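hey so i finally got around to running both of the ones u sent me last week. sorry it took forever, my laptop kept dying halfway thru and i had to restart like 3 times lol. anyway pasting them below in the order u listed, first the sequence line then the structure token line for each. didnt double check formatting much so if smth looks off just lmk and ill redo it

first one:
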Amino acid sequence: MITFSQSMLQTYSRCPQQYRLRYLLRQPWPAPEREPALEYERQRKNGERFHRLAQQALIGLPPATLEHHAAALGEPLLTWWHAFRRAHAPLLAAAGSPALRAEYAISSPLGENRLLAKLDLLHIHPQGWTIYDWKTEARLPTRAALGSRWQTRVYMALAVRTSGLAPEQIRLKYWYATHPAATLEFAYTKTAYERDWATIQRLAAEISAARDFPRTSDERLCAWCNYRSYCNRGQQAGDWQQAPEDLPEEPLDELDFEQIAEIAF
């Protein structure tokens, strides 16, 4: 049995060989993913720290304590933190409520396998479910690019499967700390849900049965792949700020699937 995540589906769709190396062989990453390496790593660390601040705020830690912590972390964390507080004041006013579930995992059977996602925030309210996802990547993607990502399709389809709600009762909101005035919101429909779930099932079945894992034919993506040296596709990493729009940010962490039980509603 395989427990799939959106990042696994995204990786296989982008390059089956990268999926094989990362998730099946668990090969160490022999090359920097993106350049400048130190700057990119700093950006990722700041993203992790911001997510922890947001989680702590939403579970009800004292605002003064979090303000002190954000100030100690310096820029850009302090600016992001202040923008987050302004943009999500109503949510923060309800911090600690059972209706707000920060860093929350949901899971559903997927044929003989499972599909699991960890949500930055799930807000359960009388009208349905609203999923929030915080982003710290520098560039704001177009709505079309964001809507086509596996993360969007998996989160919304999985919410329908686990909640028992109608697709029209599901919302997904992306908020960018680097572009705090921009919240990209996605509604859902029955047609979109049926299409997405069928696509997810089909891809999961393909991955489960795969015996051959070819390299991507789109070699422009290889500049932003840790495994490019395995495939003799260059040594120099691409600039992380110049990555193609359809190449999403790498997940900040991978879920420990064995430690997360399936959640049913």
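and the second one:
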Amino acid sequence: MCDELIHPGMVEDPRLSRRSFGVLTVAAAAVASTAYAQTDVVEKDVEVKTPDGNCDAVLYHPQAQGTAPAVLIWTDIMGLRPAFRDMGRRLAAQGYVVLVPNPFYRSARAPVIGPSFNFNDPEQRNRLFGYRAAMKDDGIDRDATAFLAYLDAQPQTNRNRKAGVQGYCMGGALSFRTAAAVPSRIAAVGSVHGGNGLVTKDADSPHLLIPKTDATFLVCQAQNDDKMEPKVKDELKAAFEAAHRPATVEVYHANHGWCVPGGQVYNMAEAERAWTALGGLYKSTLA
């Protein structure tokens, strides 16, 4: 869920402006002031060709020679920005080839927000919702296929090992769709504060895609999402069990958005807990 009742107030990152975004992020891997700067990771801004156009994205891989499993990261509703570059860099440092695309490339290049974003401002909020509305289900599936193909085309990617996908906020649902669109490649799915949009009454509800996947799932729900719709976690567990898909569904002691630095609800302790859980998921499924 990504509405004003869940995302409180301001999201801020002083590194973020359209003018300086490219300059800052190119150098970010070597600058210690970034949250998770890693000198053993190669970072590259790239363009990924999809059936719907060219998607601006950032690619990471370990600097050491050899190959590694691939992981796709779907951002939250505020898109590709320095906080998610930090997260991609951190994951790559753990031994993965990582792609973080701009999910809104059909509408605008990243970043789609400025140094501060007020989620309680209807004008700002509705602009993001408009970008999200331009992402139709079939387009998301095409994107997922193109992103995995791009990752597999990298010489650093070990194509003999399965890939993972993780998503935040709206990215949780996109991760479910990715696993269903490319089931032969995706072995691990992580949804972090994916919200109650994972289970809806609609025919395209993400939980209905579970039988089409061949993955192990980690679903980390926010406590306020769970409070609003406490049955969602149980419906997810039932769907995983019916599809015979291994899954962990757990409510974290933090609110929607807790895992992404810069927001008012960021909770470092619970964010680190989610990172640990994702690390365990990948080690057990992508080996």
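quick thing i noticed on the 2nd:
The radius of gyration is 17 Å.
anyway thats it, ttyl
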